[in-house]
Amino acid sequence: THSLSPCRFYLHPEMSKDLVGTHPPGAHSLVAVSVGYFLEDFVDMLCNQKLHQSWELLFHHSVVIICFGIAVLLHQYVGFALVALLVEINSIFLHLRQILLMANLVHTTCYRLNSLINLGTYVVFRIATLAWMTRWLFLNRQNVPPATYAVGTVGMAIMTPMNIILFYRLLRSDFFK
């Protein structure tokens, strides 16, 4: 469901002008289902992984649940949440990387190809999207209530460094061994 986000912007260009109050039919449901996914994944990690192995993802999921939850409850910022879902396109390749690692297929062409696609989609869908979202938030600060602006700013201040650190780890692990 996450990959529907780019299509929504193409089909509903008015969202590029108003990410606060404008969203196409089904977008609210998509964000609500995403909250459910992040909640389920959060609980699964709590139950099935050691805290020292998953604390970063638990923290990430907490921020997403809070931010998306606000959008769902207020029926506002759904467009902004859709932009944030673009980040999840890269998750396909991050997850495939993990599967290939678990299958001990690190020295295969498939792993190498996935590593390249993973890094490319990481830059486009994670780093560039987070940079764009931070810029949008800064440029629209006068139109965003202070509490919502604070939540958004803190969310971006948490997500951006986390994603830069993960990018560095991926580079180091897959390209600079």
Task: Explain what the structure shows.
- This protein has 177 residues and is an all-alpha fold.
- It has one domain.
- 75% of the residues lie in helices and 0% in strands.
- The protein is built from 7 helices and no strands.
- It has helices at 5-11, 27-48, 51-74, 78-85, 91-102, 109-139, 146-174.
- Helix 3 (51-74) runs antiparallel to helix 7.
- It is globular and about 50 Å long.
The major sheet is characterized as: none
Order of helices and strands: HHHHHHH
How much of the sequence lies in strands comes to: under 5%
> What's the count of strands?
0
Distance between the termini: 35 Å
Radius of gyration: 17 Å
What share of residues is helical?
over 70%
Rough outline: globular
Q: Provide mean pLDDT, rounded.
A: 89
Task: Tally the structural domains.
Answer: 1
The helix/strand class is mainly alpha
Counted by DSSP, the helix tally is 7
Low-confidence stretches: none
Summarize the structure.
The protein has 7 helices and no strands. The chain is mainly α and 177 residues long. α2 packs antiparallel against α3, α2 crosses α4 and α3 runs antiparallel to α7.
